[in-house]
Write a structure and sequence with these properties.
Layout lengths: L16 E4 L7 H7 L6 E7 H17 L3 E7 L8 H13 L6 E7 L1 H13 L5 E6 L2 H7 L4 E6 L2 E8 L4 E4 L9 H18 L1 H9 L1 H5 L3 H21 L14 H10 L6 H18 L5 H13 L12 H9 L6 E6 L2 E7 L3 H16 L2
Parallel strand pairs: 1-8, 2-3, 2-4, 4-5, 5-8
Antiparallel strand pairs: 6-7, 9-10
This protein binds glycine.
The site of glycine has 6 residues, from loops.
């Protein structure tokens, strides 16, 4: 006999609010009303920069409201997004007696939301998670959709899981303290979403450059809202990144290679902007994208101050090796603004080499 049982576990679809509440971080009453019901103990996980700007205040509001909240801060920067930092945070929580009945509130940019998400997913096999993103990139991308991971020496985000938060609370006024380079990282993310999902949103980003860069509240709020809407629609259709969600990797095949080649002296947004442009050129070479659209894409990035500058000129051979490092590369390709036609297309090496040559000669070192 070979008995077999079928184990059928109905998987609950997580439903959560992404609440945009301008100024809620500076208004304790509004902030407390925006929180969902919390578990018995709360750990506010942040980095040492955001601790001083926002997280200490948040922790204070919670404590004066009678909630057992404590701050857990780690050194800021991508260098902290490691298994070692996660272990240190876990040890801190164990030492302070945090158990299963814990809420982790992540306050910070993408490094914090990724780290806190992964921590929440595994601590006592999973505790409640609330995201309070404070960078534009975290507001429109990292805090939504449940991707949680840490880096390992050979690769970014290689160890992690999917774990959805109970709520995301976005206060766009937090952008006032964000450095311009970080703001641009988030703007690249918005442009990317427009390119793979929504031509009207692209038009909006194209026509509100000054307002967005000067943090005009109405424009910033609309731009964030549309990006979050696109992200949540993609995640609803493909939580596990098997199909449609992969469109969000537009520009990343080239972008990741450039990040590695430049030893991360380019920011993620700067690398992805070049990546989007080169991958758009590939689509144009393949006869899918018009030259006019390619020009529009280049122009919008330049209008937001993205300069496509590389620290040095790399040979086509070195760049190709960096792109091919992880095996046969697959590209997200678009056939128009807001019109994707592939979330994982292989392209001939000759086309890739031509695109990298164009990047060097026409875009970066013209
Ligand atoms: N950052 C891309 C994604 O969440 O799928």
């Amino acid at each position: 006999m070979n008995p077999t049982l079928i184990c059928t576990i109905p998987s609950p679809s997580p439903i959560y609010e992404i609440a945009m509440r301008r100024d809620c971080l500076s208004n304790p009453g509004v902030f407390m009303r925006t929180l969902p019901s919390l578990r018995q103990r709360v750990a506010v996980v942040t980095d040492d920069t955001v601790a001083l700007l926002y997280a200490q205040h948040i922790c204070h509001h919670l404590v004066v409201s009678g909630i057992a909240a404590e701050l857990c801060a780690f050194p800021s920067g991508e260098k902290s997004k490691t298994r070692a930092t996660k272990e240190l945070l876990e040890d801190q929580l164990f030492a302070r007696g945090f158990g299963r009945d814990t809420t982790i509130i992540a306050v910070g940019g993408g490094v914090v939301t990724d780290m806190a998400g992964y921590l929440a997913a595994t601590y006592c096999r999973g505790v409640q998670l609330i995201m309070i993103p404070t960078s534009l990139l975290a507001m429109v991308d990292a805090s939504i959709g449940g991707k949680a991971a840490v880096d390992v020496p050979s690769c970014k985000n290689l160890v992690g899981c999917f774990y959805q938060p109970s709520k995301v609370i976005i206060d766009p006024s937090a952008l006032a303290t964000l450095p311009l380079r970080e703001l641009r990282n988030g703007i690249v993310e918005m442009i990317k979403k427009a390119l793979v999902a929504d031509p009207a949103y692209f038009d909006f980003l194209e026509t509100h450059v000054e307002e967005l860069l000067s943090l005009n509240a109405a424009v910033v709020d609309k731009a964030i809202f549309e990006s979050c809407r696109i992200k949540k629609e993609f995640v609803e259709q493909d939580e596990r990144d098997c199909s449609k969600r992969r469109l969000l990797n537009f520009g990343h095949t080239i972008g990741h290679a450039l990040e590695v080649l430049t030893k991360f002296s380019l920011s993620h947004g700067e690398a992805v902007a070049i990546g989007i442009l080169v991958e758009s050129y590939i689509a144009e070479r393949l006869g899918k994208l018009s030259n006019e659209s390619l020009e529009r894409i280049q122009t919008i990035f330049r209008s937001y101050g993205l300069t496509f500058r590389l620290p040095e000129q790399y040979s086509i051979k070195n760049m190709c090796e960096a792109v091919l490092f992880r095996g046969q590369p697959r590209f997200v390709l678009i056939s128009g603004i807001g019109l994707p036609f592939s979330y994982g297309m292989e392209v001939d090496k000759a086309v890739l080499e031509d695109a990298l040559g164009w990047m060097n000669d026409v875009v970066c070192f013209n």
